[in-house]
Amino acid sequence: MDKNELQEVLDWAKTTDLVELEFKLDGKGFSFSKKPKPVTAVCGFPGRNLAAVPCPGVGIFQWNAPGSPRLAVEGKAVAKGDVLGIVEGPGAPKKIEAPCGGALQNVCVDAGQTVQYGQPLFFIDRKD
Amino acid sequence: MFKKILIANRSEIAVRVIRACREMGIKSVAVYSEADRESLHVRLADEAVCIGPAPAASSYLDVEAVLGAAKVTGAEAVHPGYGFLAENAGFCQACRDAGLVFIGPKPEAIRRLGFKSSARDLARKAGVPIVPGSMGLLGHDFMAEASKVGFPVMVKAAAGGGGKGLRLVREAKDLEAQIRMAKAEAGAAFKDDSVYLEKFIEHPRHVEIQIAADEAGGIVAFPERDCTVQRRHQKLIEESPSPVVTSDIRRRMQEAARSLAKAAGYTNVGTVEFLLDTDGSFYFMEVNTRLQVEHPVTELVTGLDLVNLQIRLAAGEKMPFGQDRASEIRAHSIEHRINAEDPAHGFAPCPGTIERVSLPGGPGVRVDTHIYPGYTVPSYYDSLIAKLIISAPDRDGAVARGLRAFGEFSIDGIKTTIPFHCSVLAHPLFKGGKFDTSFIEAMKAPGGEPFREPVKEGQPA
Question: Rounded to a whole number, what is the distance in Å from the CA of B81 to chain A's nearest CA?
Fold first, then answer.
């Protein structure tokens, strides 16, 4: 295999989500591997389009208004505008709405926790 | 005493309050906007809460966000610093309603003194001299009113502001025409053409008295601060004692400030501002119902800690000393406000990243600042980045020490007002102590002293 051929293979590999590529000459075979998704998502992770959902204010985080079901569960699909939680402060509770649709990749907050402005509370793997 | 205090402010004053808290064994909570994430007050406080985006209206001025931060951190008291919510009676009330102690006066006192007209009425009733003027709005008897006040007089629009409807009249023969013009201007600007008269003070000095009061009615007044060096009503240099105030004027000013504080039911620290005429008479201007930027001048002159006192008084403690101690003058002090502004280009704001800082030190030199190398001065807030406060046994010593300190003081990366302060200190009028509030404008006039760079060691002067 010459350098140009190798370059062709590398260019092709870049268009896939492969993280390992094995090549044997005499034993003939090929081996590919795709690693599982990392547990902790990082914004700007290559090949991923994660959107952070920042906290809109200072106060206590709750999943929803009392008596309403919790919508934000890791792995669940959310639509743009879905209420993921609320922040209770001295004024009216502030709703935390999904800025986009996709799969809820990470939930970084729990009910009763104190939160501050701008703190990332969720990461959504964007689908739209 | 409080266990935890939230500081609803930023910059050097937040740092100043955090320092006082630490010395008193009180935990401090800083609040900050997204633009102040790297600010020193965030680093120095025991806890810090981000309360909003960069614009002050959605962070430092957002009452809900500030109260929310106090709630989640379990703070018992709120120190408002100066500016932002410091003189907001609504915020003061909201703190009380939320079960928090507001470190400052009661909301009723802020309301009484916050409006110029009600503060003037209160001053008149308390026997505090106010600038002589027409009683109420001008009618057809304006000539009689003007001669009672005495020329020169200022014609002012009742709905005034921004210099609109403002006319200086030196002689009686011009009065009628100038009143007509002022009325036309005021009517066009404010849809209200009512005007009134005030005596025009030819060479005024801005002199103010710091006061402190406890809940039990103990009121003290400190030595005056002279804030005559101003540019467009912005104080640039403050000193104490004033080079022109005699002990008799000082005593009368202190008495006036104390009786006004008593009449207003004032508690905690505050400042009564006066205009001082060349003949020694002084007139009430307004009350600042908060800690002042220039409070360190009084601290260095008296050897007292005003922020510590403020916190103690808010916690309900009695005034720990009497008037005799409060009026003791132990040094001469001059404060220089260092702004991120370019004095060579009309004092244009000059935000940006500070590359290097070298702060002055040695005897009698105090620097209150929140800057450090690598700090970026945000463009959202006021441009004060440091205060150099000098103390020395006398005024000449303080001026010489100030010049020495500025020689050591350098801030690289942004333009600052340091060169401006050097030229003021070196100016013969400033050295002589004889100037009025127009001093800075006069300095810029042709033939005035140009702004000089500070002379550094090893460099030709």
Answer: 21
10 Å Cβ neighbour count for A76? 11
Active-site annotation of B, residues: 290
Query: Strand B4-7 relative to strand B77-79: parallel, antiparallel, unpaired?
Result: parallel
Q: Which of A23-27, A83-87, B238-242 has the lowest mean pLDDT?
A: A23-27
Closest CA to B312 of B267, B377, B259, B345: B267
The yes-or-no verdict on residue B428 having pLDDT over 60 is yes
Q: Taking 90 as the threshold, does the pLDDT of residue B19 lie above it?
A: yes
CB contact under 8 A, A89 and B34: no
- Which ipTM was obtained for this model? 0.74
Model's pTM, two decimal places?
Answer: 0.85
Q: What pLDDT sits at residue B459? A: 43
A57 inside 8 A of chain B by CB: yes
Which residue shows structure tokens 């004024």? A91
**Pairing label, strands A120-126, A102-107:** antiparallel
The per-residue pLDDT for range B255-271, each reduced to its tens digit, is 999 999 999 999 999 99
- Checking if the pLDDT of A1 tops 70, the result is no
Q: The CATH number of A50-126 is which of 3.40.50.410, 2.60.40.10, 2.40.50.100, 2.60.40.790?
A: 2.40.50.100
Q: How many CA atoms lie within 13 A of B183 on its CB side?
A: 13
Q: Which of B80, B7, B76 is nearest to B40 (CA)?
A: B7
Evaluate whether B259 touches B127 at the Cβ level (below 8 Å). yes
CA distance A65 to A44: 32
Structurally, chain B folds into a number of domains equal to 3
- pLDDT tens track for B346-367: 899 999 999 999 999 999 999 9
Instruction: Judge whether B175 lies within some domain.
Output: yes
CA dist B142 and B145 (Å) reads 5
Partner-chain contact A57 B65, CB within 8 Å: yes
In whole angstroms, how large is the CA radius of gyration of chain A? Answer: 21
Helix, strand, coil percentages (3-state) for chain A, rounded to 5, are 10, 35, 55
**By the 8 A CB rule, do B66 and A117 touch?**
no
Q: Which phi-psi region, left, alpha or beta, contains residue A28 (left: φ > 0; alpha: ψ -120 to 50)?
A: left
